[in-house]
Amino acid sequence: MTIRLPIIKTHKLFINGQFPRSESGRSLEVRGASGEVIAHACNASRKDLRDAVVAARAAQDAWSRRAAYNRGQIFYRMAEMLDAKRAEFVDLLNDTPAAGKTKPKPKPARPDADREVSASVDRLVAFAGWADKYSQILGCHNPVNGPFYNFTVAEATGVVGIVAPDRPALLAMVSLIAPAICAGNTVVALASETTPLPACVLAEVCATSDVPSGVVNILTGTRAELVPQFSEHREVDAVVAASIEPDHLARLRLGAANNLKRVVTHALADTDWYDDARCESPWAIEPTVEMKTIWHPASA
To answer: Is 102 a domain residue?
Structure first.
């Protein structure tokens, strides 16, 4: 009689459209609701984050110059591929209560896991629609005294660091990445520390959704190690973080004082991420853009 043991998968990082292991060789145990190890996730190092920033910087110019309508098409493709993996996402959201813990507490299945996947699909569709429209909302034609036209237009900030909260692991990650790349930024995102697997599968969605290499880079690891690197790296132009610890927030602000990057933080409850009025608004895009004013002569 042959006994077949399940293969415990090691989920890789997602950098420049590829799935490398951490250069450090480290990994985190991911345990299921009953306490058994169900997978491993790479534990990203500072070098991995630097590699991701290099990839994001190289991809940013071409991505920002893409037609807004084409970026919207890619968002629709991401929504389709995420929905195609619905069953896998639901299983992961139900079965990953903790990561890197030796004695996780058992956790019952979440009845709202399917709702979270549906909300994530809807969020991508919403920003697909905003891709060629948000600039009309955020920008304006300014009245001036003189023979000039004066316009304010939104431009991508550049490379945006994302620090996702622990819950909801999938919806929050999608809700933070989508506004940034909708505006033409590229991102380096740090996944939920306690529930990293949904972000790992989201990377597979990006890899099969016509997202150009380097536009979305996803790391798994610890905030204690990587938040200071987001703060200090001078090629990271902005950081958007949600529900992080006070000491990590202080570190981000300290880095901003040193290198003048923009730091935006959200303190949202788990249920707030389902608020479409807040999370699908074009004003969710505003923290990741810079406003440029253009003067143009007008005929008398």
So the answer is: no
